[in-house]
Design brief:
This is Putative HTH-type transcriptional regulator. The chain has a single domain, classed as lambda repressor-like DNA-binding domains (434 Repressor (Amino-terminal Domain), Orthogonal Bundle), CATH 1.10.260.40. The chain has five helices and two strands; from the N terminus they run E-H-H-H-H-H-E. It has helices at residues 7-13, 18-25, 29-36, 44-53, 58-61; strands at residues 2-5, 62-65.
Length: 66
Amino acid sequence: MHIINHVADRRKALGLTQEELAARVGVTRRTIISLEKGHYTPSLMLAFLLADALKVDITVLFQLWR
């Protein structure tokens, strides 16, 4: 099992750059890039911060894939 994220889709829908999203949640652009490529699974705190910044429920932004 692994986690699928919809960060890139949601970020683009809101017209945000990776840099803008990174600044909103207090991480580097590199972290956002790694996350969007599926190379990084965020901590629970970061997942909540991302969901808040992207104005979506955490369960919509991150889903468990079997």
